[in-house]
Amino acid sequence: MCDSTSDIISHVPGNILDKILMCLSLKDAVRTSILSRKWRYAWAKLPQLEFDSTLYYDDSTLYNDDSTLYNDDSKATHTKLMMIIYQVMLLHRGPIMKFTLNVYGLESCSEIDLLILFVSSNDIQDFFLRITHGELYKLPSSLYSCLQLRHLRLHSCMLKPPPEFEGFTRLISLDLFHVVIADDVLSSLISNCPLLEDLTFLSFTSLHSLEVVGPNLKSVRCYGHFRSICFTNTSRLATVKICLNKRRRDLFFSEEETSNSVMLLENVPVIESLELDYCYVKGIAASGVPTRLPTTLNNLKDITLNYICFGERDEVSVLICLIRSSPNLEKITINAFPCATSAIPIDLDFSEVLGCSDVSLNQLRKVIMTNVSGTKPELEFIKFLLAKSPMLDEMLICLESESVADELWIVKELTRLRRASPQAEMNVSGIIYDDSSLVDA
Amino acid sequence: MASSIENNNEKLTLKSSDGEEFLVEKHVALQSTLLQNMLDSDCSSADVIPLPKIDARTLALVLGYCKKHADASSSKQGELNSFDSEFLKDMDMGALFNLVLAANFMEIKGLLDIAAQKIADTIKDKPHQEVREIFHVENDYTPEEEAAVREENRWAFEGFP
User: Fold this and answer.
1) Taking every annotated instance into account, which residue ranges of this chain make up the domain FBD (chain A) (predicted)?
2) Longest dimension (CA), chain A
3) Chain A within 8 Å of B109 (Cβ-Cβ)?
4) How far apart are CA A117 and CA A42, in angstroms?
Protein backbone atom coordinates (compact mmCIF):
# COMPACT_ATOMS: atom_id res chain seq x y z
CA MET A 1 0.00 0.00 0.00
CA CYS A 2 1.14 3.48 -0.76
CA ASP A 3 1.08 6.36 1.63
CA SER A 4 1.77 9.90 0.56
CA THR A 5 5.07 10.37 2.38
CA SER A 6 7.34 7.69 0.91
CA ASP A 7 9.15 7.55 -2.41
CA ILE A 8 6.68 5.42 -4.31
CA ILE A 9 7.47 6.54 -7.83
CA SER A 10 11.04 5.21 -7.78
CA HIS A 11 9.81 1.77 -6.76
CA VAL A 12 6.87 1.12 -9.09
CA PRO A 13 7.27 -1.81 -11.51
CA GLY A 14 9.42 -0.96 -14.53
CA ASN A 15 6.56 -1.11 -17.02
CA ILE A 16 4.60 1.52 -15.05
CA LEU A 17 7.63 3.80 -14.82
CA ASP A 18 8.15 3.45 -18.59
CA LYS A 19 4.51 4.27 -19.15
CA ILE A 20 4.75 7.43 -17.04
CA LEU A 21 7.96 8.51 -18.80
CA MET A 22 6.38 7.91 -22.20
CA CYS A 23 3.57 10.31 -21.30
CA LEU A 24 6.21 13.05 -20.98
CA SER A 25 7.89 15.05 -23.73
CA LEU A 26 11.43 13.89 -24.48
CA LYS A 27 12.79 16.98 -22.73
CA ASP A 28 10.83 16.34 -19.53
CA ALA A 29 11.73 12.65 -19.63
CA VAL A 30 15.44 13.42 -20.02
CA ARG A 31 15.25 15.88 -17.11
CA THR A 32 14.13 13.08 -14.76
CA SER A 33 17.73 11.81 -15.03
CA ILE A 34 18.69 14.28 -12.32
CA LEU A 35 16.19 13.09 -9.68
CA SER A 36 18.41 10.30 -8.33
CA ARG A 37 20.87 7.60 -9.46
CA LYS A 38 18.05 5.21 -10.14
CA TRP A 39 16.58 7.68 -12.61
CA ARG A 40 19.77 8.56 -14.48
CA TYR A 41 19.20 6.36 -17.51
CA ALA A 42 15.57 5.40 -16.95
CA TRP A 43 14.51 7.57 -19.93
CA ALA A 44 17.27 6.15 -22.14
CA LYS A 45 15.67 2.69 -22.28
CA LEU A 46 12.32 3.93 -23.55
CA PRO A 47 11.33 2.37 -26.88
CA GLN A 48 10.31 5.74 -28.29
CA LEU A 49 12.22 8.86 -29.28
CA GLU A 50 10.15 11.86 -30.20
CA PHE A 51 12.09 14.87 -31.36
CA ASP A 52 9.43 17.53 -31.69
CA SER A 53 8.88 21.20 -30.93
CA THR A 54 9.07 20.57 -27.17
CA LEU A 55 12.75 19.76 -27.72
CA TYR A 56 13.97 23.19 -28.41
CA TYR A 57 11.70 25.69 -26.80
CA ASP A 58 8.94 25.61 -24.25
CA ASP A 59 5.65 27.40 -24.71
CA SER A 60 6.87 30.54 -23.00
CA THR A 61 9.71 31.14 -25.46
CA LEU A 62 7.59 30.32 -28.48
CA TYR A 63 5.64 33.55 -28.29
CA ASN A 64 8.39 35.62 -26.79
CA ASP A 65 10.13 38.23 -28.94
CA ASP A 66 13.43 37.41 -27.26
CA SER A 67 13.13 33.82 -28.34
CA THR A 68 16.48 32.54 -29.49
CA LEU A 69 14.64 30.56 -32.11
CA TYR A 70 13.85 33.59 -34.21
CA ASN A 71 17.02 35.49 -33.47
CA ASP A 72 19.37 32.69 -34.36
CA ASP A 73 20.14 32.32 -37.98
CA SER A 74 18.73 29.16 -39.46
CA LYS A 75 22.11 27.46 -39.88
CA ALA A 76 22.87 27.81 -36.18
CA THR A 77 19.44 26.53 -35.24
CA HIS A 78 19.88 23.51 -37.47
CA THR A 79 23.33 22.72 -36.04
CA LYS A 80 22.11 23.05 -32.49
CA LEU A 81 19.18 20.73 -33.14
CA MET A 82 21.41 18.12 -34.77
CA MET A 83 23.72 18.25 -31.74
CA ILE A 84 20.81 17.60 -29.38
CA ILE A 85 19.61 14.71 -31.52
CA TYR A 86 23.09 13.14 -31.58
CA GLN A 87 23.48 13.52 -27.80
CA VAL A 88 20.17 11.78 -27.21
CA MET A 89 20.85 9.03 -29.75
CA LEU A 90 24.25 8.29 -28.19
CA LEU A 91 22.79 7.93 -24.69
CA HIS A 92 19.82 5.88 -25.83
CA ARG A 93 20.01 2.13 -25.45
CA GLY A 94 17.76 -0.66 -26.60
CA PRO A 95 15.20 -0.93 -29.36
CA ILE A 96 13.40 2.09 -30.83
CA MET A 97 9.86 1.25 -31.85
CA LYS A 98 8.66 4.80 -32.33
CA PHE A 99 10.71 7.57 -33.89
CA THR A 100 9.55 11.12 -34.51
CA LEU A 101 11.52 13.86 -36.18
CA ASN A 102 9.31 16.92 -36.30
CA VAL A 103 11.34 19.92 -35.26
CA TYR A 104 10.88 23.37 -36.67
CA GLY A 105 14.20 24.63 -38.00
CA LEU A 106 15.71 21.29 -38.97
CA GLU A 107 16.94 21.28 -42.56
CA SER A 108 17.01 18.54 -45.08
CA CYS A 109 20.50 17.00 -44.90
CA SER A 110 22.40 13.75 -45.31
CA GLU A 111 22.70 13.28 -41.52
CA ILE A 112 18.96 12.64 -41.47
CA ASP A 113 19.55 9.76 -43.91
CA LEU A 114 21.89 8.29 -41.29
CA LEU A 115 19.30 8.64 -38.54
CA ILE A 116 16.75 6.85 -40.67
CA LEU A 117 19.28 4.15 -41.54
CA PHE A 118 19.94 3.74 -37.80
CA VAL A 119 16.29 3.37 -36.80
CA SER A 120 15.54 1.17 -39.81
CA SER A 121 17.82 -1.51 -38.40
CA ASN A 122 15.87 -1.34 -35.16
CA ASP A 123 12.53 -2.87 -36.13
CA ILE A 124 10.85 0.51 -36.07
CA GLN A 125 7.05 0.35 -35.93
CA ASP A 126 6.00 3.97 -35.81
CA PHE A 127 7.77 6.63 -37.87
CA PHE A 128 6.92 10.32 -38.20
CA LEU A 129 9.04 12.73 -40.21
CA ARG A 130 8.57 16.39 -40.99
CA ILE A 131 11.37 18.45 -42.49
CA THR A 132 10.15 21.82 -43.65
CA HIS A 133 13.40 23.68 -44.25
CA GLY A 134 15.93 23.62 -47.02
CA GLU A 135 15.61 21.50 -50.12
CA LEU A 136 12.83 18.98 -50.46
CA TYR A 137 13.95 15.98 -48.47
CA LYS A 138 14.25 12.77 -50.43
CA LEU A 139 13.66 9.73 -48.27
CA PRO A 140 16.58 7.31 -48.23
CA SER A 141 16.16 3.73 -49.43
CA SER A 142 16.62 2.43 -45.87
CA LEU A 143 13.05 3.54 -45.11
CA TYR A 144 11.69 0.94 -47.52
CA SER A 145 13.36 -1.83 -45.55
CA CYS A 146 11.35 -1.02 -42.40
CA LEU A 147 8.97 -3.91 -42.86
CA GLN A 148 7.75 -3.86 -39.25
CA LEU A 149 6.21 -0.41 -39.76
CA ARG A 150 2.66 -0.09 -38.45
CA HIS A 151 2.29 3.70 -38.57
CA LEU A 152 3.94 5.96 -41.11
CA ARG A 153 3.48 9.71 -41.19
CA LEU A 154 5.44 11.89 -43.59
CA HIS A 155 5.39 15.62 -44.26
CA SER A 156 7.02 17.62 -47.03
CA CYS A 157 9.35 15.07 -48.54
CA MET A 158 9.77 12.96 -51.63
CA LEU A 159 8.68 9.36 -51.67
CA LYS A 160 10.18 7.27 -54.44
CA PRO A 161 10.45 3.61 -53.53
CA PRO A 162 12.89 1.43 -55.49
CA PRO A 163 11.29 -0.85 -58.10
CA GLU A 164 11.84 -3.94 -55.97
CA PHE A 165 9.89 -2.48 -53.03
CA GLU A 166 6.95 -4.75 -52.23
CA GLY A 167 5.05 -2.66 -49.73
CA PHE A 168 4.79 -2.37 -45.97
CA THR A 169 3.06 -5.62 -45.13
CA ARG A 170 2.16 -4.62 -41.56
CA LEU A 171 1.26 -0.99 -42.07
CA ILE A 172 -2.00 0.09 -40.41
CA SER A 173 -1.96 3.84 -40.89
CA LEU A 174 -0.43 6.02 -43.58
CA ASP A 175 -0.46 9.82 -43.44
CA LEU A 176 1.11 11.78 -46.28
CA PHE A 177 1.08 15.58 -46.16
CA HIS A 178 2.60 17.55 -49.02
CA VAL A 179 4.55 14.49 -50.01
CA VAL A 180 5.81 14.43 -53.57
CA ILE A 181 4.84 11.09 -55.02
CA ALA A 182 3.76 9.89 -58.46
CA ASP A 183 0.10 8.93 -58.56
CA ASP A 184 0.73 5.40 -59.80
CA VAL A 185 3.31 4.93 -57.02
CA LEU A 186 0.79 6.13 -54.46
CA SER A 187 -1.89 3.76 -55.78
CA SER A 188 0.44 0.78 -55.71
CA LEU A 189 1.77 1.75 -52.26
CA ILE A 190 -1.80 1.65 -50.93
CA SER A 191 -2.60 -1.69 -52.53
CA ASN A 192 0.71 -3.15 -51.29
CA CYS A 193 -0.15 -2.47 -47.66
CA PRO A 194 -2.77 -5.18 -47.15
CA LEU A 195 -3.48 -4.37 -43.49
CA LEU A 196 -3.91 -0.64 -44.05
CA GLU A 197 -6.86 0.79 -42.09
CA ASP A 198 -6.33 4.55 -42.14
CA LEU A 199 -5.20 6.63 -45.08
CA THR A 200 -4.76 10.39 -45.06
CA PHE A 201 -3.41 12.22 -48.07
CA LEU A 202 -3.03 15.95 -48.51
CA SER A 203 -1.33 17.61 -51.44
CA PHE A 204 -1.88 20.64 -53.59
CA THR A 205 0.05 19.49 -56.60
CA SER A 206 -2.06 18.09 -59.43
CA LEU A 207 -2.29 14.35 -59.65
CA HIS A 208 -4.00 12.35 -62.28
CA SER A 209 -5.86 9.51 -60.72
CA LEU A 210 -5.83 7.55 -57.51
CA GLU A 211 -6.97 4.02 -57.15
CA VAL A 212 -7.79 3.05 -53.61
CA VAL A 213 -7.69 -0.70 -53.10
CA GLY A 214 -7.84 -1.83 -49.50
CA PRO A 215 -9.78 -4.74 -48.04
CA ASN A 216 -9.08 -3.51 -44.49
CA LEU A 217 -9.43 0.23 -45.02
CA LYS A 218 -11.73 1.88 -42.50
CA SER A 219 -10.96 5.52 -43.06
CA VAL A 220 -9.84 7.47 -46.13
CA ARG A 221 -9.27 11.20 -46.01
CA CYS A 222 -8.05 12.73 -49.21
CA TYR A 223 -7.41 16.39 -49.94
CA GLY A 224 -5.81 17.11 -53.26
CA HIS A 225 -6.24 17.92 -56.94
CA PHE A 226 -7.02 14.47 -58.25
CA ARG A 227 -8.80 14.04 -61.54
CA SER A 228 -10.40 10.92 -60.23
CA ILE A 229 -10.36 8.76 -57.15
CA CYS A 230 -11.74 5.33 -57.56
CA PHE A 231 -12.44 2.76 -54.86
CA THR A 232 -12.17 -0.99 -55.35
CA ASN A 233 -12.35 -3.76 -52.79
CA THR A 234 -13.05 -1.36 -49.94
CA SER A 235 -15.92 -3.19 -48.29
CA ARG A 236 -14.97 -2.12 -44.75
CA LEU A 237 -14.69 1.62 -45.33
CA ALA A 238 -16.57 3.50 -42.61
CA THR A 239 -15.28 7.04 -43.07
CA VAL A 240 -14.58 8.84 -46.33
CA LYS A 241 -13.63 12.50 -46.67
CA ILE A 242 -12.74 13.85 -50.07
CA CYS A 243 -11.89 17.38 -51.04
CA LEU A 244 -10.62 17.74 -54.59
CA ASN A 245 -10.77 21.49 -54.82
CA LYS A 246 -10.46 23.83 -51.89
CA ARG A 247 -12.22 26.79 -53.42
CA ARG A 248 -15.05 26.76 -55.81
CA ARG A 249 -14.07 28.65 -58.89
CA ASP A 250 -14.06 27.31 -62.39
CA LEU A 251 -14.08 23.57 -62.34
CA PHE A 252 -10.58 22.31 -61.98
CA PHE A 253 -11.17 19.49 -64.39
CA SER A 254 -13.82 18.89 -66.98
CA GLU A 255 -16.72 16.72 -65.98
CA GLU A 256 -15.55 14.01 -68.30
CA GLU A 257 -12.26 13.72 -66.45
CA THR A 258 -13.87 13.28 -63.04
CA SER A 259 -16.35 10.68 -64.22
CA ASN A 260 -14.55 7.75 -62.58
CA SER A 261 -15.59 9.07 -59.20
CA VAL A 262 -18.84 7.17 -59.19
CA MET A 263 -17.10 3.98 -58.12
CA LEU A 264 -17.09 5.23 -54.56
CA LEU A 265 -20.73 4.77 -53.68
CA GLU A 266 -20.89 1.24 -55.03
CA ASN A 267 -17.91 0.04 -53.03
CA VAL A 268 -18.63 1.27 -49.53
CA PRO A 269 -21.48 -0.89 -48.20
CA VAL A 270 -20.79 -0.14 -44.52
CA ILE A 271 -19.97 3.56 -44.80
CA GLU A 272 -20.87 5.54 -41.66
CA SER A 273 -19.58 9.01 -42.36
CA LEU A 274 -19.22 10.63 -45.77
CA GLU A 275 -17.83 14.05 -46.64
CA LEU A 276 -17.49 15.17 -50.25
CA ASP A 277 -16.90 18.42 -52.04
CA TYR A 278 -18.73 19.74 -55.09
CA CYS A 279 -15.95 18.59 -57.38
CA TYR A 280 -16.34 14.96 -56.43
CA VAL A 281 -20.11 15.29 -56.46
CA LYS A 282 -19.90 16.61 -60.03
CA GLY A 283 -17.85 13.54 -60.87
CA ILE A 284 -20.51 11.27 -59.47
CA ALA A 285 -23.22 13.20 -61.30
CA ALA A 286 -21.36 13.07 -64.62
CA SER A 287 -21.75 9.34 -64.90
CA GLY A 288 -25.47 9.50 -64.31
CA VAL A 289 -27.27 9.56 -61.01
CA PRO A 290 -29.84 6.88 -60.30
CA THR A 291 -32.90 7.74 -58.21
CA ARG A 292 -31.60 5.38 -55.62
CA LEU A 293 -28.28 3.56 -55.24
CA PRO A 294 -28.24 -0.18 -55.96
CA THR A 295 -27.15 -0.86 -52.37
CA THR A 296 -28.84 0.87 -49.47
CA LEU A 297 -26.32 2.60 -47.22
CA ASN A 298 -27.84 1.39 -43.97
CA ASN A 299 -24.88 2.40 -41.80
CA LEU A 300 -24.51 5.92 -43.11
CA LYS A 301 -25.22 8.35 -40.28
CA ASP A 302 -23.41 11.50 -41.24
CA ILE A 303 -23.25 13.28 -44.62
CA THR A 304 -21.34 16.48 -45.28
CA LEU A 305 -21.27 18.15 -48.67
CA ASN A 306 -19.04 21.15 -49.24
CA TYR A 307 -19.44 24.06 -51.69
CA ILE A 308 -22.57 22.58 -53.15
CA CYS A 309 -24.61 24.88 -55.32
CA PHE A 310 -28.36 24.47 -55.10
CA GLY A 311 -28.66 26.11 -58.49
CA GLU A 312 -26.92 23.15 -60.14
CA ARG A 313 -29.28 20.34 -60.94
CA ASP A 314 -26.61 17.60 -61.06
CA GLU A 315 -25.27 18.42 -57.61
CA VAL A 316 -28.72 18.48 -56.05
CA SER A 317 -29.64 15.19 -57.68
CA VAL A 318 -26.61 13.50 -56.06
CA LEU A 319 -27.66 14.98 -52.73
CA ILE A 320 -31.20 13.65 -53.10
CA CYS A 321 -29.94 10.25 -54.28
CA LEU A 322 -27.71 10.01 -51.18
CA ILE A 323 -30.55 10.96 -48.85
CA ARG A 324 -32.89 8.50 -50.53
CA SER A 325 -30.36 5.66 -50.24
CA SER A 326 -29.46 6.29 -46.59
CA PRO A 327 -32.47 5.57 -44.35
CA ASN A 328 -30.56 5.91 -41.06
CA LEU A 329 -29.04 9.34 -41.50
CA GLU A 330 -28.62 11.25 -38.23
CA LYS A 331 -26.82 14.35 -39.38
CA ILE A 332 -26.69 16.35 -42.59
CA THR A 333 -24.26 19.22 -43.10
CA ILE A 334 -24.36 21.29 -46.27
CA ASN A 335 -21.91 24.10 -46.83
CA ALA A 336 -23.63 25.77 -49.74
CA PHE A 337 -22.00 27.87 -52.37
CA PRO A 338 -23.97 30.85 -53.59
CA CYS A 339 -22.88 30.41 -57.18
CA ALA A 340 -23.47 32.83 -59.99
CA THR A 341 -26.05 30.64 -61.64
CA SER A 342 -28.29 30.95 -58.61
CA ALA A 343 -29.14 34.48 -59.76
CA ILE A 344 -31.13 32.80 -62.48
CA PRO A 345 -32.94 30.22 -60.39
CA ILE A 346 -33.08 26.87 -62.05
CA ASP A 347 -36.43 25.43 -61.31
CA LEU A 348 -35.65 22.38 -59.28
CA ASP A 349 -38.66 20.42 -58.45
CA PHE A 350 -38.32 19.27 -54.90
CA SER A 351 -42.05 18.81 -54.70
CA GLU A 352 -41.59 15.60 -56.65
CA VAL A 353 -39.24 14.33 -53.93
CA LEU A 354 -41.39 15.85 -51.21
CA GLY A 355 -44.36 13.87 -52.36
CA CYS A 356 -42.43 10.62 -52.39
CA SER A 357 -43.24 8.29 -49.58
CA ASP A 358 -40.03 6.33 -50.18
CA VAL A 359 -37.85 8.93 -48.50
CA SER A 360 -37.62 8.50 -44.78
CA LEU A 361 -35.48 10.54 -42.47
CA ASN A 362 -36.73 8.92 -39.30
CA GLN A 363 -33.34 9.07 -37.56
CA LEU A 364 -32.34 12.58 -38.59
CA ARG A 365 -31.47 14.67 -35.51
CA LYS A 366 -29.35 17.51 -36.74
CA VAL A 367 -29.04 19.63 -39.85
CA ILE A 368 -26.43 22.32 -40.43
CA MET A 369 -26.59 24.54 -43.50
CA THR A 370 -24.14 27.36 -44.07
CA ASN A 371 -23.90 30.10 -46.71
CA VAL A 372 -27.62 29.97 -47.27
CA SER A 373 -28.64 32.85 -49.53
CA GLY A 374 -32.34 32.11 -49.60
CA THR A 375 -32.75 30.87 -53.15
CA LYS A 376 -35.88 28.93 -53.99
CA PRO A 377 -34.15 25.53 -54.25
CA GLU A 378 -32.49 26.09 -50.87
CA LEU A 379 -35.78 26.90 -49.21
CA GLU A 380 -37.44 23.95 -50.95
CA PHE A 381 -34.72 21.66 -49.62
CA ILE A 382 -35.11 22.98 -46.07
CA LYS A 383 -38.87 22.56 -46.38
CA PHE A 384 -38.33 18.99 -47.51
CA LEU A 385 -36.01 18.17 -44.57
CA LEU A 386 -38.35 19.69 -42.00
CA ALA A 387 -41.32 17.83 -43.41
CA LYS A 388 -39.60 14.45 -43.54
CA SER A 389 -37.76 14.25 -40.21
CA PRO A 390 -39.99 13.53 -37.21
CA MET A 391 -37.07 13.18 -34.77
CA LEU A 392 -35.21 16.37 -35.70
CA ASP A 393 -33.68 18.16 -32.68
CA GLU A 394 -31.94 21.07 -34.29
CA MET A 395 -31.57 22.84 -37.58
CA LEU A 396 -28.84 25.44 -37.76
CA ILE A 397 -28.88 27.84 -40.70
CA CYS A 398 -26.10 30.35 -41.32
CA LEU A 399 -27.21 33.02 -43.75
CA GLU A 400 -25.09 34.63 -46.41
CA SER A 401 -27.28 37.39 -47.71
CA GLU A 402 -26.60 40.88 -48.93
CA SER A 403 -28.83 42.94 -46.72
CA VAL A 404 -30.74 42.92 -43.49
CA ALA A 405 -33.97 43.12 -45.46
CA ASP A 406 -33.06 39.94 -47.38
CA GLU A 407 -32.26 38.23 -44.16
CA LEU A 408 -35.52 39.15 -42.53
CA TRP A 409 -37.34 37.87 -45.59
CA ILE A 410 -35.54 34.50 -45.38
CA VAL A 411 -36.25 34.22 -41.65
CA LYS A 412 -39.90 34.94 -42.36
CA GLU A 413 -40.00 32.25 -45.03
CA LEU A 414 -38.31 29.74 -42.73
CA THR A 415 -40.73 30.29 -39.87
CA ARG A 416 -43.64 29.46 -42.17
CA LEU A 417 -42.35 25.96 -42.94
CA ARG A 418 -44.09 23.00 -41.32
CA ARG A 419 -42.00 20.80 -39.07
CA ALA A 420 -42.65 17.09 -38.66
CA SER A 421 -40.75 17.14 -35.40
CA PRO A 422 -42.45 19.04 -32.58
CA GLN A 423 -39.20 19.46 -30.64
CA ALA A 424 -37.15 20.75 -33.59
CA GLU A 425 -35.29 23.92 -32.80
CA MET A 426 -34.52 26.28 -35.66
CA ASN A 427 -31.46 28.46 -35.17
CA VAL A 428 -30.58 31.13 -37.69
CA SER A 429 -27.44 33.21 -37.69
CA GLY A 430 -26.43 35.95 -40.08
CA ILE A 431 -25.08 39.44 -40.49
CA ILE A 432 -27.69 41.16 -38.38
CA TYR A 433 -26.66 39.15 -35.37
CA ASP A 434 -23.27 38.78 -33.74
CA ASP A 435 -21.31 35.86 -35.11
CA SER A 436 -21.48 34.23 -31.72
CA SER A 437 -25.15 34.64 -30.95
CA LEU A 438 -27.78 32.52 -32.56
CA VAL A 439 -31.31 33.74 -32.55
CA ASP A 440 -34.27 31.47 -32.42
CA ALA A 441 -36.43 32.15 -35.40
CA MET B 1 -21.70 -2.91 -6.48
CA ALA B 2 -22.52 -5.29 -3.64
CA SER B 3 -26.16 -5.87 -4.54
CA SER B 4 -27.07 -9.53 -4.82
CA ILE B 5 -30.56 -9.36 -6.29
CA GLU B 6 -29.65 -10.82 -9.65
CA ASN B 7 -28.64 -14.33 -10.53
CA ASN B 8 -25.45 -15.26 -8.73
CA ASN B 9 -24.06 -17.08 -11.77
CA GLU B 10 -23.50 -13.77 -13.44
CA LYS B 11 -21.45 -12.42 -10.56
CA LEU B 12 -18.16 -13.11 -8.91
CA THR B 13 -16.68 -12.19 -5.55
CA LEU B 14 -13.41 -10.30 -5.18
CA LYS B 15 -11.64 -10.01 -1.84
CA SER B 16 -9.42 -7.06 -1.00
CA SER B 17 -6.15 -7.22 0.97
CA ASP B 18 -7.96 -6.01 4.07
CA GLY B 19 -10.60 -8.72 3.80
CA GLU B 20 -13.54 -6.86 2.33
CA GLU B 21 -15.60 -8.77 -0.23
CA PHE B 22 -17.01 -7.21 -3.41
CA LEU B 23 -19.72 -8.83 -5.49
CA VAL B 24 -19.08 -7.89 -9.10
CA GLU B 25 -21.18 -8.43 -12.21
CA LYS B 26 -19.35 -10.52 -14.77
CA HIS B 27 -19.43 -7.96 -17.58
CA VAL B 28 -17.89 -5.39 -15.21
CA ALA B 29 -15.14 -7.82 -14.17
CA LEU B 30 -14.31 -8.42 -17.85
CA GLN B 31 -12.82 -4.93 -18.03
CA SER B 32 -9.85 -6.54 -16.26
CA THR B 33 -7.75 -8.79 -18.48
CA LEU B 34 -6.54 -10.63 -15.38
CA LEU B 35 -10.09 -11.54 -14.32
CA GLN B 36 -11.05 -12.29 -17.92
CA ASN B 37 -8.21 -14.81 -18.17
CA MET B 38 -9.21 -16.38 -14.86
CA LEU B 39 -12.80 -16.75 -16.01
CA ASP B 40 -11.69 -18.16 -19.37
CA SER B 41 -9.55 -20.77 -17.66
CA ASP B 42 -12.61 -22.24 -15.95
CA CYS B 43 -12.03 -20.64 -12.62
CA SER B 44 -15.31 -21.23 -10.83
CA SER B 45 -17.20 -18.01 -10.27
CA ALA B 46 -18.40 -19.43 -6.96
CA ASP B 47 -14.89 -19.08 -5.58
CA VAL B 48 -13.77 -15.92 -3.91
CA ILE B 49 -10.92 -14.34 -5.88
CA PRO B 50 -8.36 -12.83 -3.50
CA LEU B 51 -6.55 -9.66 -4.55
CA PRO B 52 -3.89 -9.54 -1.84
CA LYS B 53 -2.20 -6.36 -3.05
CA ILE B 54 -5.27 -4.16 -3.38
CA ASP B 55 -7.00 -2.55 -0.40
CA ALA B 56 -10.76 -2.06 -0.17
CA ARG B 57 -10.65 1.69 -0.84
CA THR B 58 -8.64 1.23 -4.03
CA LEU B 59 -10.67 -1.78 -5.17
CA ALA B 60 -13.90 0.18 -4.77
CA LEU B 61 -12.46 2.93 -6.99
CA VAL B 62 -11.23 0.43 -9.57
CA LEU B 63 -14.61 -1.30 -9.74
CA GLY B 64 -16.35 2.06 -10.05
CA TYR B 65 -14.20 2.77 -13.09
CA CYS B 66 -14.88 -0.69 -14.56
CA LYS B 67 -18.62 -0.40 -14.05
CA LYS B 68 -18.80 2.95 -15.79
CA HIS B 69 -16.79 1.68 -18.76
CA ALA B 70 -18.63 -1.64 -18.99
CA ASP B 71 -22.06 -0.03 -18.92
CA ALA B 72 -21.39 2.81 -21.33
CA SER B 73 -22.02 2.10 -24.97
CA SER B 74 -19.30 2.86 -27.46
CA SER B 75 -21.20 5.84 -28.79
CA LYS B 76 -20.78 7.71 -25.52
CA GLN B 77 -17.04 8.28 -25.78
CA GLY B 78 -17.35 11.94 -24.85
CA GLU B 79 -19.18 11.08 -21.67
CA LEU B 80 -16.54 8.51 -20.74
CA ASN B 81 -13.75 11.03 -21.33
CA SER B 82 -15.31 13.51 -18.94
CA PHE B 83 -15.91 10.72 -16.42
CA ASP B 84 -12.22 9.76 -16.67
CA SER B 85 -10.96 13.27 -16.02
CA GLU B 86 -13.38 13.78 -13.11
CA PHE B 87 -12.44 10.38 -11.73
CA LEU B 88 -8.81 11.30 -10.98
CA LYS B 89 -9.40 14.93 -10.12
CA ASP B 90 -8.20 15.96 -6.65
CA MET B 91 -6.91 12.46 -5.90
CA ASP B 92 -3.88 12.51 -3.59
CA MET B 93 -0.60 10.96 -4.78
CA GLY B 94 -0.88 7.95 -2.44
CA ALA B 95 -4.32 7.02 -3.76
CA LEU B 96 -3.20 7.63 -7.35
CA PHE B 97 -0.24 5.26 -7.00
CA ASN B 98 -2.43 2.62 -5.34
CA LEU B 99 -4.73 2.95 -8.32
CA VAL B 100 -1.95 2.69 -10.91
CA LEU B 101 -0.54 -0.41 -9.17
CA ALA B 102 -4.00 -2.01 -8.98
CA ALA B 103 -4.71 -1.22 -12.65
CA ASN B 104 -1.35 -2.75 -13.58
CA PHE B 105 -1.97 -5.89 -11.51
CA MET B 106 -5.52 -6.37 -12.74
CA GLU B 107 -4.51 -5.42 -16.30
CA ILE B 108 -7.04 -2.66 -16.90
CA LYS B 109 -5.38 -0.80 -19.75
CA GLY B 110 -7.61 2.25 -19.90
CA LEU B 111 -7.28 2.95 -16.19
CA LEU B 112 -3.51 2.38 -16.28
CA ASP B 113 -3.23 4.85 -19.17
CA ILE B 114 -5.16 7.67 -17.53
CA ALA B 115 -3.49 7.18 -14.12
CA ALA B 116 0.01 7.18 -15.68
CA GLN B 117 -0.90 10.29 -17.68
CA LYS B 118 -2.08 12.00 -14.49
CA ILE B 119 1.23 11.25 -12.75
CA ALA B 120 3.17 12.45 -15.81
CA ASP B 121 1.16 15.69 -15.84
CA THR B 122 2.40 16.31 -12.30
CA ILE B 123 6.04 16.04 -13.43
CA LYS B 124 5.62 18.02 -16.66
CA ASP B 125 7.39 21.39 -16.89
CA LYS B 126 8.36 21.38 -13.19
CA PRO B 127 11.92 21.96 -11.95
CA HIS B 128 13.44 18.72 -10.66
CA GLN B 129 13.72 20.06 -7.10
CA GLU B 130 9.95 20.37 -7.02
CA VAL B 131 9.44 16.91 -8.54
CA ARG B 132 11.71 15.42 -5.87
CA GLU B 133 9.59 17.07 -3.20
CA ILE B 134 6.23 15.95 -4.61
CA PHE B 135 7.29 12.32 -4.94
CA HIS B 136 9.68 12.23 -1.95
CA VAL B 137 12.56 11.10 -4.15
CA GLU B 138 15.81 11.15 -2.18
CA ASN B 139 18.71 12.69 -4.07
CA ASP B 140 21.60 10.24 -3.72
CA TYR B 141 23.90 12.03 -6.19
CA THR B 142 27.07 13.73 -4.99
CA PRO B 143 27.25 17.36 -6.18
CA GLU B 144 29.89 16.31 -8.74
CA GLU B 145 27.69 13.53 -10.10
CA GLU B 146 24.72 15.85 -10.30
CA ALA B 147 26.77 18.33 -12.28
CA ALA B 148 27.86 15.53 -14.61
CA VAL B 149 24.28 14.43 -15.25
CA ARG B 150 23.32 17.99 -15.98
CA GLU B 151 26.23 18.36 -18.40
CA GLU B 152 25.36 15.08 -20.11
CA ASN B 153 21.89 16.44 -20.94
CA ARG B 154 22.59 20.15 -20.93
CA TRP B 155 20.05 20.96 -23.63
CA ALA B 156 17.19 19.59 -21.54
CA PHE B 157 17.99 21.80 -18.55
CA GLU B 158 18.09 25.08 -20.48
CA GLY B 159 15.72 27.46 -18.78
CA PHE B 160 15.56 25.36 -15.61
CA PRO B 161 17.34 26.14 -12.31
Assistant:
1) 357-429
2) 79
3) no
4) 25
Q: Is A37 on the interface with B (CB under 8 A)?
A: yes
Mutate to test the interface with A, among B113, B152, B154, B157 (most CBs of A within 10 A): B152
The verdict on B46 touching A (C-beta cutoff 8 Å) is no
Dihedral of the CA atoms A177, A178, A179, A181 (nearest 10)?
Answer: 120
Q: Do A31 and B112 touch (CB under 8 A)?
A: no
Chain A interface, best mutation among B18, B123, B157, by max A CB count within 10 A? B123
- For residue range A15-24, list pLDDT tens digits in order: 999 999 999 9
Best CA proximity match to A53, nearest among A17, A104, A98, A97: A104
A303 CB neighbour count, 10 Å cutoff: 21
pLDDT value for B46: 65
Chain B contact for A412 (CB, 8 A cutoff): no
Tally the C-alpha atoms within 13 A of residue A357's C-alpha that lie toward its C-beta.
Answer: 0
A69/B34: higher pLDDT: B34
Give the C-alpha distances (Å, rounded to integers) separating A310 from A16, A284, A314, A347, A416. 57, 16, 9, 10, 21
Note whether B157 contacts A: Cβ–Cβ < 8 A: yes
Q: What is the pLDDT of residues A23-43, one digit of tens each?
A: 999 999 999 999 999 999 999
Residue A197 Cα to chain centre, angstroms: 14
Cα of B54 to nearest chain A Cα, Å: 8
As beta bridge partners, residue B25 has: B11
Query: Which residues, at least 6 apart from A238, have a Cβ–Cβ distance to it below 8 Å?
Result: A218, A219, A270, A271, A272, A273, A299
Geometric angle at alpha carbon A319, from A420 and A329, rounded to 5°: 50
B144 touching A (Cβ < 8 Å)? no
Cβ distance of B120 and A21 shorter than 8 Å = yes
Beta bridge partners of A199: A174, A220
User: 3-class secondary structure for A183-195?
Assistant: HHHHHHHHHCCCC
